[in-house]
Design a protein that fits this description.
Distance between the termini: 53 Å
Order of helices and strands: HHHHHHHHHHHHHHHH
Strand content: under 5%
Largest sheet: none
Number of helices: 16
Number of strands: 0
Oligomer: single chain
Radius of gyration: 20 Å
Helix content: over 70%
Length: 330
């Protein structure tokens, strides 16, 4: 179920299996608990995932030692949780440790290292370290293709992340070369509500918008918005897509503000007021309100976002300039 993105069903099955495991079978119980923690995190339920994964790390080190597959997997999972909560320095340390140990234990071109490179790239993008993120995404995609081939879900998902990076750099043609085959492949391989398939459809719509294919992008957005079973991170991304389509695609700032309000409300409910996801939503809302001329509210939201995001950015991050511009609007 987890592989196919059926997170609710995966959670139910994992809980049932945990209930069947003997208390003496520490190895099996640990493996199931790690999986459950990761499934909960992918659903946006980080607080429930924390104790499972944190306790699991200590148990894994006792059972297997520091240089083991289980500990490496937990480094990845805990880094994701630290990233969600804004402890990016701790997340960065976990990811770097995962890459170093993974290269020694599994090999530098292993799938485990490729997955860690991908996850670290997502963090580097949010920190504003875009050049480093691009290098990691390229390495992750190439490693997956070398080990598994190009036409498998793991390689397609890496291609989606790389396509999104190219879009952010304004490299629309290269993004299209990656996202076209990847989204088609994932649409064939995964069920309609799988996070990997949803993510690919979002990036494909972003590419269509950048390529001037507004109607195709709108149609794709409407299909995504109609899906009711979707993890929180994907729902936030769909609200972000809505903003882009309304603002850049249709020139309707008020409709874009409504989409931004939906994103901000969802982030506040699931991640809290001080989470990076909430701060990014505030920043996007501030940008839209500044364009509408609602400058006092835009400045207030930008100041709130800056309090969370400024300490997390690398020197020279483009986001810092965006924050300054919004904070200094006349």
């Amino acid at each position: 179920y987890w592989r196919w993105g059926k997170l609710v069903q995966a959670e139910a099955q994992l809980r049932a299996l945990i209930g069947q495991v003997s208390g003496n079978d520490r190895t099996r119980l640990l493996e199931l608990s790690i999986r459950l923690g990761r499934v909960l995190r992918e659903q946006g339920r980080s607080e429930e995932a924390w104790p499972l994964l944190q306790n699991g790390l200590g148990q894994a080190e006792q059972l297997y030692g520091r240089r083991s597959r289980h500990v490496l997997e937990l480094d990845d999972a805990l880094a994701d949780l630290h990233m969600d909560s804004g402890r990016w320095d701790v997340a960065l340390a976990h990811f770097q440790q995962r890459l170093t140990l993974g290269a020694q234990v599994e090999g530098p071109d292993s799938l485990g290292v490729a997955m860690a490179q991908f996850n670290l790239a997502l963090l580097e993008q949010q920190r504003g370290n875009h050049a480093r993120a691009g290098e990691l995404l390229q390495q992750s995609w190439q490693s997956r293709v070398a080990v598994l081939g190009a036409d498998v879900p793991m390689s397609w998902r890496a291609a989606v992340g790389l396509a999104q990076w190219h879009l952010a750099q304004g490299q629309v043609e290269r993004a299209g070369e990656l996202i076209g085959p990847a989204s088609a492949g994932l649409s064939t391989a995964l069920p309609v509500d799988a996070p990997g398939r949803i993510e690919a459809q979002i990036v494909l719509a972003q590419w269509e918008l950048a390529a001037g294919r507004i109607e195709q992008a709108l149609q794709r957005y409407r299909h995504l918005a109609a899906q009711t079973q979707m993890p929180v991170p994907m729902r936030l991304a769909v609200h972000g897509l809505c903003q882009s389509l309304q603002q850049a695609g249709r020139g309707d700032l008020q409709a874009a503000v409504v989409c931004a309000g939906n994103e901000l409300e969802l982030a506040q409910q699931h991640y809290g007021e001080q989470a990076p996801a909430t701060a990014f939503a505030r920043l996007r809302m501030a940008g839209l309100l500044a364009q509408k001329g609602e400058l006092p509210t835009a400045r207030r939201l930008a100041n709130q976002a800056a309090a969370v995001l400024e300490p997390l950015q690398v020197p020279g991050s483009p986001l810092l300039q965006t924050l300054r511009q919004l904070q200094q609007t006349p």
